[in-house]
Write a structure and sequence with these properties.
The complex is a heterodimer of chains A (about 325) and B (about 325). Chain A is α/β, with parallel strands linked by helices. Chain A has helices at about 10-30, 45-55, 70-75, 80-85, 120-130, 150-160, 180-185, 195-200, 210-225, 255-260, 265-275, 280-305; strands spanning about 60, 140-145, 165-175, 175, 180, 200-205, 230-235. A five-stranded parallel β-sheet of chain A has the order 1-2-3-7-6, with helices on both faces. A two-stranded antiparallel ribbon of chain A has the order 4-5. Chain A is globular, with a radius of gyration of 19 Å. Chain B has about 325 residues and is of the alpha/beta class. Chain B is about 35% helix and about 20% strand. The chains are: A alpha/beta (about 325), B alpha/beta (about 325). The structure holds thiamine diphosphate and magnesium ion (MG).
Chain lengths: ~325, ~325
């Protein structure tokens, strides 16, 4: 399973978009322009983009607190995302959710989640809907290495396995849960071993290689569509920035970060594209400039949007 | 209208059947709900009728049960999740409190989560501290949940159907001691809307608001008090969220006295909420005596039969509480 050549520029565009969106968010966080916190996806772009390239528009994803990348890869409108981050009425949640709760259920994004592990069970539920309504869809369930140690992971993956739910569980192992290194939190190195306990396939993939992620997720998606049930994928990657707004990063060395930056997913993919004559350097630069402009437009839209009216404060607690 | 006698359990069973026949998106999931029929056999026989696809036996995983219910509700199904004992909702608490309750609001008000969480609560079966609690106040405290506590077969049937049709998470508390209670139920289809109290007994001297199992106990106490010339008005709120405060206020304005009775621990129990809401209302000026609460003691449910019984209000406690409140000796 290889990506069609004509899709490759789009893949690059998404990766650029995530990188630049997050850089802008980092600026805004530093300037205090964003009211809450934010968990940045810089360094992990290949995982969300490669994974979402392997599904169709009407498939589902569930996301995490570090969700901006998943949203963009699932095709979210960055204008509405930026507006949400600035707490505006025009945001995805009309300013009620903020960074950790961006969702677009109609488009298949079942939402970011402020509770680590909180969406793993929800992914199973979407799988139940697909199965019962015979929808031929799948669910990509993203979660971190920290969430991998939550109790609900065990419950939900086992449920998905015995019910053969069309869910692909994607553990984004960015090596840390806040300050907690995986070597402190796990007594195994190969996380895919856990799949055996549930009777499902488990694979480790280089999460910084967008094509490799695409390939493995595609395989798991085919399995899921064929009614063969869930798969556990471990995407090995790295978070470049601090955990959230405030993080002194006392738990890792600059050298370690520098080593991982050498494995930049964007640099790697750009190299691949020019080496294989998919895009010239100039074309890549042009694409980068376009995403830059798109981010600026999103910022403008968000900044010019109104804050929600106080009349909306109590709206939506209950559905009509 | 022709009626039949049904037990509370049969009424619940009929509600499940009717709604599953009406709407293909309705399904039941929970531990041992299939062949076994659920711990209290409410769903017994539904597996044969609707198949394993719609009567789903789950692994022993409360968080996953609620999580799966939330996810499928969010994507177009109308799940009914059964949690075997109310005590175990705590195992799925993140899914209940942070997920189910929040999704519609925090995602901007356009993502309803139509699910029902059916669960048996209450003591009296000798199951002790971890299988006997009345934890409704926990979810009453969480905006986003509706909370339903039927006390009769009629209400159980009509309220469960309305709960299934509601577009929000609904906690539906079934009292274990009520499962065998019989009562008249129309043969024809009907609904009982959420948020509508019912006066279960008319009276002029005191208003009592009992929850769930306390309704039959209060009715029994009221019959005895009536012989002594004290006429009790019993207002069954039936749903705690939304609460039909107006019906309670109307009754209190008439009687000038209010007693609230529930099984859950008194401290932080829903009675405190009813009390406060009445105090803050126009009914306050009509009160001839302070409002009183009669509720479970602030202890875990004990095992030994008499200890268990004395822990929660019984008929004679209600009788006495009325006399105390009215200062009649
Ligand atoms: C249940 C829960 N516990 C703790 C937290 C606080 N918290 C937020 S993110 C995080 C680390 C999560 O690590 P991981 O799952 O690896 O995701 P990452 O941040 O690395 O993407 C913690 C401890 C939380 N949000 N939810
Ligand atoms: Mg991590």
């Amino acid at each position: 399973m290889e990506l069609k050549k004509e899709m490759l520029p789009e893949i690059l565009r998404q990766m650029f978009t995530i990188r630049k969106f997050e850089e802008k968010v980092a600026d805004f966080l530093a300037q205090g322009k964003i009211h809450g916190t934010g968990h940045l996806y810089i360094g992990e772009e290949a995982t969300a983009v490669g994974a979402c390239a392997a599904i169709e528009a009407n498939d589902y994803i569930t996301s995490t607190h570090r969700g901006h990348g998943h949203c963009i890869a699932k095709g979210a409108d960055i204008k509405k995302m930026m507006a949400e981050l600035l707490g505006k009425e025009t945001g995805y949640c009309r300013g009620k959710g903020g960074s950790m709760h961006i969702a677009d259920v109609e488009k298949g994004n079942l939402g970011a989640n402020g509770v680590v592990g909180g969406s793993i069970g929800i992914a199973c539920g979407a799988g139940v809907t697909i199965q019962m309504k015979k929808l031929n869809r799948v669910v990509l369930c993203f979660f971190g290495d920290g969430a991998f140690n939550q109790g609900i992971f065990h419950e939900a993956v086992n449920l998905a396995s015995v019910w053969k739910l069309p869910v692909v569980f994607i553990c984004e192992n960015n090596q840390y849960a806040m300050s907690t290194a995986t070597k402190i939190a796990f007594n195994i190195k190969d996380f895919s071993l856990r799949a055996q306990a549930y009777g499902i396939p488990g694979t480790v993939v280089d999460g910084n290689d967008v094509l490799a992620v695409y390939r493995e997720v595609s395989r798991a998606v085919s399995r899921a569509r064929a009614g063969q049930g869930p798969t556990l994928l471990i995407a090995e990657t790295y978070r470049w920035k601090g955990h959230s707004r405030s993080d002194a990063e006392r738990y890792r060395t600059r050298d370690e970060v520098a080593q991982w930056k050498k494995r930049c997913p964007l640099k790697r993919f750009k190299k691949y594209l020019s080496k294989n004559n998919v895009l010239t350097e100039e074309e890549i630069e042009k694409l980068e400039e376009e995403t830059h402009l798109a981010i600026e437009a999103a910022v403008k839209f968000a900044e010019e949007s109104p804050f929600p009216s106080l009349d909306t404060l109590e709206e939506g607690v209950y559905a009509p | 209208m022709a009626t039949v006698e049904l037990t509370y359990k049969e009424a619940l069973h009929r509600a499940l059947r009717e709604e599953m026949n009406r709407d293909i998106n309705v399904y039941l999931l929970g531990e041992d709900v299939g062949v076994y029929g659920g711990a209290f056999s409410v769903s017994l026989g539904l597996l044969e009728e609707f198949g394993a696809e719609r009567i789903k036996d789950t692994p022993l995983s409360e968080a996953a049960i609620v999580g799966a219910a939330v996810g499928s509700a969010l994507t177009g199904m109308r799940p009914i999740a059964e949690i075997m004992f109310m005590d175990f909702i705590t195992v799925g608490m993140d899914q209940l409190v942070n997920q189910a309750a929040k999704i519609n609001y925090m995602y901007g008000g356009k993502t309803p989560v139509p699910l029902v969480l059916r669960t048996p609560g209450g003591s009296g079966t000798g199951a002790a501290a971890q299988h006997s609690q009345s934890l409704e106040a926990l979810l009453c405290h969480i905006p986003g949940w509706k909370v339903v506590m039927p006390s009769t077969p009629y209400d159980a049937l009509g309220l469960l159907k309305s709960s299934i049709r509601d577009n929000n998470p609904v906690l539906f508390v079934e009292h274990k001691l009520l499962y065998r209670q019989k009562g008249p139920v129309p043969e024809e289809e009907y609904l009982v809307p959420l948020g509508q109290a019912e006066v279960k007994r008319k009276g002029s001297d005191i208003t009592i608001v009992p929850l769930s199992i306390m309704i039959p106990r209060t009715l029994a106490a009221a019959a005895k008090l009536s012989q002594e010339g004290i006429e009790v008005e019993i207002v069954d709120p039936r749903t705690l969220v939304p609460l039909d405060l107006l019906s309670i206020i109307q009754s209190v304005k008439k009687t000038g006295h209010l007693l609230i009775v529930h099984e859950a621990c008194k401290r932080g129990g829903f009675g405190a909420e009813i009390l406060s809401q009445v105090e803050e209302s126009e009914a306050f000026d009509f009160l001839d005596a302070p409002i009183r609460r009669l509720a479970g003691k602030n202890i875990p449910i004990p095992y030994s039969p008499e200890l268990e019984r004395r822990n929660v209000p019984q008929e004679d406690d209600i009788y006495q509480a009325v006399k105390d409140l009215l200062e009649i000796n």
